[in-house]
């Protein structure tokens, strides 16, 4: 942070870690510990950015939603620490699933993730982070996307569905994974020409 400040770089927000919440990933941090660590991060931001109008936001946890973990984290961190509640959505499952196209074209399958959006919305309503809920990472299929589906026009159906769902549940931001990388990159990594799902 000190380096960034010394260079005069403007930072919108800081998020502590990536996918450390819950039990879906190999690495994880206990919700109570994460809450304490985010308090330290918030205090560090306040200390290093003396003027409140230039202070970057503090976001978290940037992982998969699990009700108990999210509630414990926000109970420990308390009011006014986390500016925005971030979570990740990869509701299509692993990218190597041979049924990926069927999932994308099945509205009832796509609607299953509404429980996650509702859960996050309920937590936001309970703890009231200033900036609400953000989908800080979503690419549809895990592990870099699906090599046969993620770059296609059909993947746009998933993308549009998620944008609508996020809006329905008052998610303030939806960050798509990724501009260039993996099978879910929106641009061709060699030519930088948009892949068909870019237009989704």
TrEMBL record:
Pfam families, per the entry: Glyco_hydro_79n
SUPFAM superfamilies (alphabetical): (Trans)glycosidases
Coiled-coil positions: none
Single GO term (MF): beta-glucuronidase activity
Record's GO cellular component terms: membrane; plant-type cell wall
Family the entry assigns: Belongs to the glycosyl hydrolase 79 family.
Protein name according to UniProt: Glucuronidase 1
Organism: Hibiscus trionum (Flower of an hour)
